[in-house]
């Protein structure tokens, strides 16, 4: 259990003083909550085992202890991590849920930062795309039309995947999403792992392999279930946050989006922040 705690504490936590947009602050708060949830569960398991050991030892050592009390203590002493072992049975579920939650939060960040830029400069939505007259006539206000076009574009980009998103950021926002090919590969893998979790029972298929390919430190096997272990999840999460933070800085500068310290946007202090500060 100590090893699990240590691994969780190694997750990349931008400082609460990091300067960012409200959009990134929301993403970061959601990220903290998801990792805190995992830590809370593992902490509960550790406490349950500690309590069981203490209770069994105490009952076995008092003068009125019974034969059953002593037998129970022997069993607990031989296997002091019953709850932790049970928790490890659900490692695949915990991994899947945390992966899905973090990736969903990242994708929401993408959508919201595009919304923020388009509201500042609606002309970035201009393209050769055709919009039906009846779609436009549904609205009476210009702001509603802009919001509709933003939502339409975001939906298109979400279906297009990383390549379309990267092209949009480069061509329309003047921002490079990635500084290295490794960043692109890891984020693509993270998103596609989430997709097979949701749509294919976590089983690696040809579509997944065609989008992700071979990545150092990962072993994807067609027809086999894949879930990230703690080291892989840390690597993928760290990469996603660093990519988002770099985008946030660049886009905020170009479009004059308000930025301030994360702790100023979000006054609540997460459990992970408290833990990190206490180390």
The profile of the biggest β sheet is: 2 strands, antiparallel
How many structural domains does the protein architecture include? 1
User: Ranges with pLDDT <50 over ≥5 residues?
Assistant: 1-9, 268-279
Fraction of residues in helices?
over 70%
For the secondary structure, the number of strands is 2
Protein structure class = mainly alpha
Question: What's the helix-strand series?
Answer: HEHHHHHHHHHEHH
Rounded radius of gyration (Å): 24 Å
Strand content: under 5%
Straight-line N-to-C gap = 17 Å
Strand order of the largest sheet: 1-2
What's the pLDDT, averaged over the residues? 82
Q: State the shape.
A: elongated
- Given the structure, what is the number of helices? 12
Explain how this protein is built.
By secondary structure, the chain is mostly helical. It has one domain. Helices cover about 70% and strands about 0% of the residues. It is built from twelve helices and two strands. A two-stranded antiparallel ribbon has the order 1-2. Helix 5 runs parallel beside helix 10 and helix 8 crosses helix 10 (about 230-255). The radius of gyration is 24 Å and the shape is elongated. It starts with a helix and ends with a helix.
């Amino acid at each position: 259990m100590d090893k699990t705690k240590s691994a969780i504490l190694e997750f990349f936590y931008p400082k609460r003083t990091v300067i960012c947009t409200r959009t990134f602050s929301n993403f970061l708060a959601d990220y903290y909550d998801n990792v805190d949830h995992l830590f809370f569960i593992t902490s509960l398991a550790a406490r349950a085992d500690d309590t069981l050991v203490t209770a069994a030892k105490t009952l076995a050592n008092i003068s009125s202890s019974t034969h059953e009390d002593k037998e129970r203590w022997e069993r607990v002493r031989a296997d002091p991590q019953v709850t932790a072992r049970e928790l490890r049975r659900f490692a695949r579920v915990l991994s899947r849920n945390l992966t899905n939650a973090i990736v969903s939060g990242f994708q929401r960040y993408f959508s919201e930062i595009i919304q923020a830029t388009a509201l500042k400069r609606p002309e970035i939505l201009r393209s050769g795309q055709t919009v039906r007259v009846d779609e436009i006539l549904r609205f009476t206000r210009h702001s509603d039309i802009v919001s509709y076009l933003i939502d339409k574009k975001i939906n298109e980009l979400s279906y297009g995947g990383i390549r379309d998103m990267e092209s949009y950021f480069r061509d329309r926002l003047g921002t490079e999403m990635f500084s290295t090919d490794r960043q692109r590969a890891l984020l693509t893998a993270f998103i596609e792992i989430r997709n097979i979790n949701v749509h294919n029972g976590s089983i690696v298929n040809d579509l997944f392999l065609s989008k992700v390919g071979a990545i150092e430190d990962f072993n994807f096997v067609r027809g086999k279930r894949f879930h990230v272990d703690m080291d892989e999840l840390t690597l993928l999460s760290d990469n996603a946050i660093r990519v988002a933070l770099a985008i946030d800085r660049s886009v905020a500068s170009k479009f004059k989006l308000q930025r301030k310290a994360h702790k100023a946007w979000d006054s609540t202090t997460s459990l992970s922040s408290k833990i990190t500060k206490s180390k």
